[in-house]
Please model this.
Amino acid sequence: MAKEIDWRGSSLNDLIKFPEDAQISAGKELRKIQYGHDASDFKLINDWGMGVIEIRIDAQAGTFRVVYVAKFEDKIYVLHSFQKKSQQTSKKDVKTITTRYSEVLNERRTKK
Model:
């Protein structure tokens, strides 16, 4: 059974703005994750939160990232979708990711 995707903040709208080839790649990778498989090209980045993973997408128009956490049984939380413009992820993007990750944890704690 596929896990539900919970799009946080503007992550879905940002992904929709990707070029078509990057959107298709992101969709295929997220589908794999929904069924419990790893993405083709990913990196675990615990500095942003325990279990936070970055999908790396190289497209004709550049490099794109979809950041998610899937360590929970019921959902995949897509925290951020963005175009990577330099070697290091911008502080603004990291802040978006860590803030949304904290919000997910707080929501899950209060639902129990």
